[in-house]
Amino acid sequence: MHRTLQRQLRKHGLGPEHAPSADAWAAFVREVARSYDGHDEHRYLLQRAMEISAEEMRALAQSLASKNALLELEIQEHARTAAKLRYAATYDSLTGLPSRRALLDELAQRISLGARYAVLFLDLDDFKVINDSLGHEVGDHVLRGVADRLREALAPLDSLAPYASRLGGDEFVVLLRTVSDERSVLRAVERIRDAFTRPVVAGQQSFALSASVGMLIGKPEYLDAHDVLRDADTAMYRAKVSGKGRCAVFNDYMHAENLDRMRLIQDLWHGIERREFVLAYQPVIDATNGRLAAFETLLRWKHPTRGMVQPDNFIEVAEHSGAIVDIGRQAIDSACAQLAGWTRLGVLGDSVRVSVNISKRQMSEDGILDHIFDACARHRLSPERLILEVTESTVMADLERVSAVLDTARAHGCLVYMDDFGTGLSSISTLHRMPFDTVKIDRSFVRHVSTDRAHAAVVQSIVTLAHNLGLTVVAEGVEHLGQLAQLQACDCDFVQGYLFSRPLPVEDVPDWVAASDSAFKLDSIRDAA
Ligand code: C2E
Ligand code: CA
Ligand code: CA
User: Fold this and answer.
1) Gap from CA of 106 to ligand 3 centroid (Å)
2) How many other CB atoms are there within 10 angstroms of residue 431's CB atom?
3) Would you call 191 exposed, middle or buried from its count of C-beta atoms within 10 A (0-12, 13-18, 19+)?
4) For residue range 95-143, what is the model confidence (pLDDT) as tens digits?
5) How much is the pTM?
6) Which residues on neighbouring strands pair with residue 210, listed in sequence order?
7) Which of 437, 298, 294, 297 minimizes the C-alpha distance to 352?
């Protein structure tokens, strides 16, 4: 309460401690009124104050308004950016088709609605060739063409409510959102396949394309859109390995296989940690004098529950998952250690070599040579005692790079063998461009060499050509004396196979060497035939 007013109240005997009397109250009001009459100045100041603050308020409002306008612009800009981001997340910028994200959302919606849907997972065949040989620009052009073809093909299929999307790369997925019967899904596949019978034009060029299609019919068991895509992808992969332009329908069997594969991959990594991979040693014999020339090391997996697993059952998966890089390192290491040890103990003479198989994935790894030389140095083994076996498809995959790596290996003294010769793509005539010391004739030629004259002729011409190019020849998979005789007649330099020995567990090698008396009596083998 105002101090003057308090004073006046007290003066008139008014206040909380006094009971107000009507006279006192009237006197008080009169006096207050009088005192304010004489204080116009106060009233004036008060009014001014009010006016000033009103002006201030107006100014403030004005500045707020202009700030608001700026804010408004900022909000609009923000909304535009958000919309752009949303578009980028929902649409693929190259083809304008919905993206993986959008597809997953759409699929999740189908699942939550309990709708009957189907998924077609498309992957172009050999698109990588176009991209790699003609460049990304042409590749992009082709992908846009493919998207247009898809739109075209799906346009008349309204009843299936098709939703075409691009996952990335050359992978497209069509979600059929309302499916009444499976026949209509097959019709959609047919239409898509037909759409690719005309070549796709990109700039000046036109490309005959085909796609592998994985088909999946939705089931109530699917609760997660990712699982649906994964299984459709599996079916696509199946279609692809069966040939170009094929379609495969997903089934539970594939799912079980997928799980098996995943378990195998997990086991592989465990196996690396627990050092479950061991090498078997198969002798390679000099065909002219029966002497032991080398041991080829062959991987075996001592699995705690699967038993001894052969390479055909895990190499491909190890290669795919990358585990082969670590497994291979262990193999190189233990081959070098073994050979150095046997030589020190006098089990083997120091002309006997050891050969290791190097897969495609290992060859594309940067540190491979460092690792090999390092292993040799650590075990005090001359690199000259090491043979690297590489298949022709590994070389063909990246001719220049792999050739350079193999050249360096040879410069350090390693020998390089071309494995499985005759099964790959390269022709005999490209052999001279490749950095090999030796070709290993594939088992499939050796098998019939003594019974089929055509096979014998092929082997003969490979040997002749290799010799003309300064290469030596190993024949692998020699099981019978007849084969040996024929290979010797063809002038083959080295032989390897069950006839001499199966791949031996490491602990059996010293005994085998002792028993073979370091030279096979090839003549006596022949005489016995
Ligand atoms: P490869 O390099 O062609 O190995 C020769 C295969 O022929 C071996 O099979 C060997 O056991 C088998 N073999 C040898 N002599 C005969 C015979 O007289 N008759 C028959 N029928 N077969 C014979 P294995 O040990 O099952 O190896 C299979 C493949 O696994 C190898 O083919 C090689 O590609 C791969 N592999 C094996 N060890 C390694 C390794 O250490 N690293 C890599 N990257 N791959 C390996
Ligand atoms: Ca081999
Ligand atoms: Ca081979």
Assistant:
1) 49
2) 19
3) middle
4) 999 999 999 999 999 999 999 999 999 999 988 888 887 888 999 999 9
5) 0.66
6) none
7) 294
